[in-house]
Design a protein that fits this description.
Elements: H1 2-8, H2 19-42, H3 62-75, H4 79-90, H5 95-102, H6 106-127
Helix pairs in contact: 1-2, 2-5, 4-6, 5-6
């Protein structure tokens, strides 16, 4: 679907733009539209973490438990913070790249990440 949308909108592609970022933005927008429409159709939000498959396939491992706890906390963040955390810390985009993908200033990326770290800090304190 993303490739089809990109091909349909080739006239909107600006020279000098990174193709991968442009296509990722299209993919992200399609995904967000799908999530929104599912919420409207079913009335449900995101899938609870405990209903997803584990990140690491070792049953009962400490790593799996901790990863699940972290993912639960990240998924509980407001949409804007969660999206920014996932782009920067999971996908590995730089602040500048994430800002370009989201169409916001780099300073907003920094403030969203600071707010997310502040929200997640109590979890780190209880881990010790």
């Amino acid at each position: 679907m993303t490739c089809l949308k990109a091909l349909q909108n080739t006239a909107r592609f600006k020279r000098g733009t990174h193709l991968d970022r442009w296509v990722f933005t299209i993919c992200r927008n399609l995904w967000l539209n799908e999530i929104r429409s599912r919420k409207l159709r079913s009335g449900n939000g995101c899938i609870p973490v405990d209903e997803t498959t584990p990140l690491i396939e070792q049953d009962g491992s400490e790593t799996n438990i901790f990863a699940s706890q972290v993912l639960t906390q990240v998924m509980a963040l407001p949409d804007a913070q969660r999206e920014t955390v996932l782009l920067v810390y999971v996908e590995g985009f730089s602040y500048k790249e994430a800002a370009a993908i989201l169409g916001i200033p780099v300073g907003t990326i920094m403030s969203r990440l600071a707010a997310a770290r502040k929200a997640l800090a109590p979890m780190k304190a209880t881990e010790k």
